[in-house]
Amino acid sequence: MHKTLNCGLQVNPLGRCVGSFCPDLATLVVTFIARHSTVQQDPLGYCAGCVDLRFVDDETYDKRHRDRVGNSLLHIFRRSWYEIREPTETEAAELVYEQAAEQRWAAEGRIGEYRRIAELHSATTVDGILVDGWTAAACVALHDALNEKRRARWLAMPTAQQCHVAIQLTMGGTR
């Protein structure tokens, strides 16, 4: 599940590497060089380890594909077909902002936990109540739409009641 930043760079949530199940932060930008196409490919954010492992020279690529038995090997790519570079100033700033999301969410308290769940499309317990991504998105939408007086009242509610009210008001539920 890639996330496209405003600069066009695609990364995994929280600015992580797009390599399969890689928990490392994206530090390099890889773009496919379109030789016979006019469509520009979006750049992908990779960590240095995945770039070294997946993008190989032409000789190694040909040898591994010639000697390959079945689909047991990791997907590898010709390094000559890709532009591998450091992120630009804009991309680096957006990566830093994306990677700092955990600290922003922690500072927001319970609403930060809802934002984390909604952003990562996951389900996690909040104050002992299991909250899924759909419910968390409803809580975030309601929190952002309320004025200060009503927001303070809503934040004082227990988690279960917050989720119930958010679903009722934002998703058009019945009483």
Per-chain topology:
Layout: E1 3-4, E2 10-11, E3 28-32, E4 44-46, H1 48-54, E5 55-56, H2 58-66, E6 77-78, E7 82-85, H3 89-99, H4 101-108, H5 110-120, E8 124-126, E9 129-131, H6 133-145, H7 148-155, H8 159-170
Parallel strand pairs: 5-6
Antiparallel strand pairs: 1-2, 3-4, 3-7, 8-9
Identify the notable features of this structure and list them briefly:
175 residues; alpha+beta; three-stranded antiparallel sheet; two-stranded antiparallel ribbon; 8 helices; 45% helix; elongated
Tell me what the structure shows.
The chain is 45% helix and 15% strand. With 175 residues, it is of the alpha+beta class. α4 packs antiparallel against α5 and α5 crosses α6. It is elongated, with a radius of gyration of 21 Å.
Given the C-alpha coordinates, what overall shape results?
elongated
CA radius of gyration is 21 Å
Mean pLDDT: 88
Number of helices: 8
Classification by helices and strands: alpha+beta
Give the spatial strand order of the biggest sheet.
4-3-7
- The span between the termini is 36 Å
Described by strand count, sense and barrel closure, the largest sheet is: 3 strands, antiparallel
Low-confidence region ranges: none
Helix content, binned percent:
40-55%
Question: Can you write the helix and strand succession as a string?
Answer: EEEEHEHEEHHHEEHHH
Give a concise summary.
This protein is α+β, with helices and mostly antiparallel strands.
